[in-house]
Amino acid sequence: MRVLRAAGQVVFVVVLVVIAREMYLNASFALGSAGRELSYTYLDSRAGFGIKEHVLGYSPNQPLFKAFLAGATNAMLVAAIGIVMATVLGVLIGIARLSSNWMVKKIALVYVEVFRNTPLLVQVIFWYVAVILAIPRIESSVSVFGLAFVSNRGAALPGIRSGADFGTWLLFVLAALPVAATVWRWRSRVHERAGEPHYRWLLSLGVVAVLAGAGYVLLGDAFRVELPELSAHGYSGGLQISPEFAAILVALVVYTAAFIGEIVRGSIMAVSKGQKEAAQALGLSPGQQLRLVVLPQAMRVAIPPINNQYLNLWKNTSLAFAVGFPDLINISTTMVNQAGHALETFSLVVGTYLGTSLLISVAMNALNRAVALRGDTA
Amino acid sequence: MSGAAPKGPRLGLGLSEDVDLLRFEQQARAIEAAPGPAPATPREWIRQNLFSGPVNSLLTLASGVFVLFLAYQILSFVFVSAQWEVVQVGMRGYMIGSFPVDEAWRVWASAYLVIILAGLSYGVSARRLRPSAGQVAVGAAAAAVAGAVVFFTAQTPLVRGLAAGATPAAIAGALVGRLFGRKILRPLIVAWVLVFPAIMIIVRGFVGVPPSEWGGFFFNIIAATVGIVASFPLGLLLALGRRSEMPVIRIASVGFIELFRGVPLVAWLIFSKFVVDLLLPPQMVIPDIIKAFLVMTFFSAAYIGEIVRGGLQGVPAGQYEAARALGLSTTRMMALIVLPQALRSTIPAMISHFISLFKDTSLFVAIEVTDLLAAARRSASSLLYFGTDMETLLFAGLIFWAVAFSMSRWSQRLEVRLGVGRR
């Protein structure tokens, strides 16, 4: 029996290897007859196409590799902001689902049922075409006290530009961190020993703020707040948000929050009722009951499924293709259209998605371990 | 309560947390269904649920204003400013895309087949499920909307008659089902198993319509069904492979599952169009849409594998031991004892996977399939109906939503009947 199993496994491996070799040969042959070969050197050639948005800086004269990187970082930026916003909105929805207020409860229910039962692609296009492009044109931008502008060409908000002394100023902030940590530990100790209020958030943040503020005043040119300006050509300066970015971000946040809301609701209900009653008996306010007793316990069960939602959100950034936001998929298809090498480019796409998914999972598993009950390692 | 305790930390890319989500929802619904305090008078109810304190009253007022505003916006759009003519003209495209009009009877026949089967099934099970007044009201409202849409959009009397005939067909099915009751349960199950191949024959056979011409909502439904039906056997193998004692099989299964789950479906669809041909022998030419279905099958199988694994984990070890003690071989133990129990508990998760796959079929637009959403976008971009994005999107969204929502409701009812989470 054991011999049979071992033989079976060997046969399985051999079959896999033969299939893989066959695929490799087919690919080399197909490329060879087109005068190409399987290699990644094409990534060093000039990209030649423009990308509207990029985080790390990009121009058409840079190699294809940079273009791919711009797409990947764009997708990651959407995912990172989206994860934070979807979590906040999702927790709010989850709490609202359990509100004692009938009206709030029903609104949250309708929200969840509408957004999670409609294809995300419909929602992405809806936010882009029917909402964002429908707000006033740029000539009649909505101005928020002259500090920010909103129109169908996007939004422009006050932004922060680093000055000449920005690096030195960062050192000040870094130096503040250990001091803040010490203050945190000191206040925690006092709180545990004497039962005095700890104010550790306030005091630690205060330390950082004071040191950073001192650095800003001393250095003179750490950073500047830059206000956007409205000109005939569009916005300039400040922090600009394109309609495409806004559409994919809003769609992902709204969609994912519906799922996270259901997870939060489920895990709050999974916290035994006695916990809330005990907190009530101790005289905690409803807000305190939720913040100090119920949510920390609910978080424990909620983390694994929420991790899955984060992974979904990351993968769903690929729907940006529908609005032309230059994400991973969008840039990769452009690359293939311009330079060929579909197989190699696709392998990079797979690698990036898997690698980033793994990073998210590792971070969430670390968080899971940090909040798990001691001894609860089943 | 289900026996599964919250899982500890597990490293991986996707894992089976979808199953956890369902478990949460089951728990939450069970708690909500528990009898509450005695019903109060309307006045008391309003005070308790809407104005129990200053904060609550403020919340009620604020959300009331918000709801009124939204309702006003939606109603004034739907009944006043919307140009619904675009939907009227585009309806055929929404339903069947570029499917040849002369062959549309194939789609009608398939639809009627499913409707009658659904009616029969409802009739058979309805002995235990008596609709409440609320359900009747919701059903009537849905029927009214559907009827209005049919009579507004149907272009010819024939189409109108066929669409309107769906209701009597379903009711007739339900009456027949009721008449025979559980005696026809077995043939009915066989019929459901055969209905997909039958539809394939109706559509594809007798000099039929090739998949490249399928489109519209018909495509969305067929693609989602292919995604479930074709990937089920592979998913089952992956689940068993993942729990196999043979390391090579286990690693291969885990690798397959994580690879296909870790990359979005859009990427796989593009892969099917641009890369698959490179990997196949040059003389092997497969139509684009079949390649896309194949890749989607792999994608879906990875998810089904995880769902079935969740089900397998829920089967108590005693069941395995008992089967062993009876002297069953591994194959017989799995087929007769373990899988029936495991699969039964996965039905809600399967439906939920079907819903998300159904929603994901809109992504086929990435490889230029004209599904419902793409047809809606196309009709809004025609010169005649320029600027009707809102109308077409809302209409397409409503159809997707109606199907996904009613399936999720159906799955909740099934959970109760199957006793998932309670056995």
Task: Explain briefly what this protein structure is.
The complex is a heterodimer of chains A (378) and B (423). By secondary structure, chain A is an alpha+beta fold.
Count of separate DSSP helical elements of chain A = 11
Distance between the termini of chain A: 32 Å
* SSE series of chain B: HHHHHHHHHHHHHHHHHH
Mean pLDDT of chain A: 84
User: What does the main sheet of chain B amount to?
Assistant: none
Largest sheet of chain A: 4 strands, antiparallel
Helix fraction of chain B, binned, reads: over 70%
Can you tell me the residue ranges of chain A where pLDDT is under 50 for at least 5 consecutive residues? none
Percent helix of chain A: 55-70%
The beta-strand count of chain A equals 8
User: Order of strands across the widest beta sheet of chain A?
Assistant: 1-2-3-8
* Count of helical regions of chain B: 18
The amount of beta strand of chain A, in percent, is: 5-15%
Rg calculated over all Cα atoms of chain B = 24 Å
Q: Biggest interface, and residues per chain? A: A-B, 77 and 73 residues
Q: What's the overall geometry of chain A? A: globular
Task: Evaluate the radius of gyration of chain A.
Answer: 26 Å
Order of helices and strands of chain A: HHHHEEEEHHEEEEHHHHH
